[in-house]
Amino acid sequence: MNLAQVEKSTWVYVAISFLLFVVPFIATGRSVQFLIIQIFVFGIFAMSYDLLLGYTGIISFGHVMFFGVGAYSTAVLFDRFDPTMLTFALAIIISGVIAGIVSLIVGVLTLRLKSHFYAMLTLALAGLFLVGAEKWRKLTGGSDGFTFGLPDILRDSFALYIVSALSLVLIFFGLRRMTKSPFGKVLVAIRENESRTESLGYQVLHYKVIVSVVSGIVASYSGVLYILSLRFVDTSVFATDLTIDVLLMTIIGGVGTLIGPIIGASLIEFAHHWLSDLSDVHWIFERWIILYGTIFILIVVFFPKGIVGTLVDRFYKWRARRT
Amino acid sequence: MDVLFSLAINGLATGMLIFLLAAGLTLIFGLMDVLNFAHGGLFIWGAYTGVWTYQMTGSFLGGIVTAIGVGLLLGLVTERFIVRPVYGSHVQQILITLGFMLVLQECIKVVFGPDQKIVSPPSYLEGSFIIGEIVFINYRLFIIAVGFLIYFAFYYLFKKTRVGLIVRAGVMNKEMIQSLGVNIKLVFLLVFMVGAALAALSGMLHAAYSGVIYAEMGLEFSILAFIVVVIGGMGNFKGSLLAAILVGLTQAFMAYYVPALSLATNMLLMAIVLVFRPQGLFALR
């Protein structure tokens, strides 16, 4: 590969990625590292969501089902088998396979439907998963949940930080490669005008199914990491609240970009932790959803591209004016 | 036999409440092709403000009137500031109304506190009577009566009045009705407000029916309303009545006979309908 052909933005992302690995040496506190791990986890989750919402223009209200599948398969494996790194590898593979199969079935059955029907159906399916997790007590422990042991290496928050940072970086570059490929261009074409893409000869349904499978597998991987950081699982990993969180992250950060969801995830996670802490000062801070909901509405109306998209647009306009 | 009968009455009452909630939603979709996920927000605002008035003044009727008033007002605000900027784009409508739903739900917690509230029906609607072996609970019969009353009132409105004619024509072809000189936007605003008021009324009636209200009901009932609208067929008024009764009855019977599955009933129903008959069970087209 000729280095001169690499885009400038890629170098910026590579530099930021290296910085991520320096951070844990500066921020050594457990709680800070935990917060950053959460940001990575939800960054990955939000990126997978943006593949559907931002790139392909599909609204799913049930994305949390893949997250939950990843979380539960990891937890159950660690609970049933010895907590070794082998189990961890097994968990990643098995959760990926299950999520892949589930998203394939869901996709084939439902992606033919119009946007609002698809949104409702995925919501219903995620609801079924939640009920299933509550009722299948033998496996899931019901709403009480259960704790499980981890391999010694992963107990250390530093190691977990490295694992999640590495995952975030790899997935980011992988998805970036995918969205910049011809395949990614077809996805954007579907978002912009589905019937025209179809009449150009593309099998729209195939593309949609493939992207939803990829997105489902990535989402389940974020569920795996999430549950490793918590070391405890209960039915909240299937809760609709998580889908709404990830929706807020993606929209606020910026749809149709990969860095946007990560920024959105940081903002929402900070809000979760810090604004909730501030509730001792004034109770209104506990209701931070109002603030974010309002921002969300304003962004949908006035800046449909989110923070990152709007900034990028401004940047291009500014550069065009200079030349 | 008596069990079957009381389950049926129970289901019918639930169905009527759901119908009041879903009726507005289905009209809004049929007329203006707008998906309103904030509908459950209007429902809880009706419930909370209605109950507040009811508990302050002791007048149940006052509570109902307050709920309807608040519903009309919120409908006006929602249509004007939330829905109007995003006509024509389903994706944006879903997103923005969901955001507004969250705001409405959190505002409830700010104004009325985050804890759940206990409500009981007024004394003149409490109690029950027995015919044969069947127990009739007064408040449930009251809800069923209100539901049918409103259904027939709207049925009359649609079939016999000029406003109803315009609304029906608008559902069929809104460009045509516009070119005939009708201000369809105004009609839509009115329909939206009436739909919101019905949702608020449903919230108030539901509050005394279930005995407890909490802010998270907003999202739950948004989803429930959508389930009913999807089953009945989007934009189909009669369909939403039948679907609401179907959902209510299924809920009641499943809760009694297969309690393990009762939580999943609605979702299953909708999933089946969407996969095999996405236009809705009672759709004409």
Automatic annotation (TrEMBL), chain A:
GO CC, sorted alphabetically, is: plasma membrane
How does the record say this protein sits in the membrane? Multi-pass membrane protein
**What keywords does the record list, in alphabetical order?**
Cell membrane, Membrane, Transmembrane, Transmembrane helix
In terms of superkingdom, the source organism counts as Bacteria
Where exactly are the transmembrane stretches of this chain? Answer: 12-27, 34-52, 85-109, 115-133, 158-175, 209-230, 242-268, 288-312
User: Which Pfam families does this chain map to?
Assistant: BPD_transp_2
**Gene Ontology molecular function terms on file:** branched-chain amino acid transmembrane transporter activity
Per UniProt, subcellular location reads as: Cell membrane
Against CDD domains, the record matches this protein to: TM_PBP1_LivM_like
Q: Which PANTHER family match?
A: ABC TRANSPORTER ATP-BINDING PROTEIN, HIGH-AFFINITY BRANCHED-CHAIN AMINO ACID TRANSPORT SYSTEM PERMEASE
* Protein name stated in the entry: Branched-chain amino acid ABC transporter permease
From TrEMBL, chain B:
User: Cross-referenced Pfam families, in alphabetical order?
Assistant: BPD_transp_2
- Domain of life, per UniProt, equals Bacteria
* Annotated InterPro entries: ABC_transp_permease, BCAA_transport_permease
Which GO CC annotations does the UniProt entry carry? Answer: plasma membrane
**TM helices/strands, residue ranges:** 6-27, 60-82, 134-158, 186-207, 213-234, 264-284
Membrane-topology annotation of the record: Multi-pass membrane protein
Which cell locations does it reside in?
A: Cell membrane
GO BP terms: namely: amino acid transport
Could you confirm whether the keyword Membrane appears in this record? yes
Asked if the Swiss-Prot or TrEMBL record annotates the protein with the keyword Cell membrane, the reply is yes
Keyword annotations for this protein, in alphabetical order, are: Amino-acid transport, Cell membrane, Membrane, Transmembrane, Transmembrane helix, Transport
Ranges in a coiled coil: none
Predominant subcellular localization, coarse grouping: membrane
Report a single Gene Ontology molecular function: transmembrane transporter activity
Please state which protein family the record places this protein in. Answer: Belongs to the binding-protein-dependent transport system permease family. LivHM subfamily.
Q: What is this protein called?
A: Branched-chain amino acid ABC transporter permease
Taxonomy, top ranks, is:
Bacteria, Bacillati, Bacillota, Bacilli, Bacillales
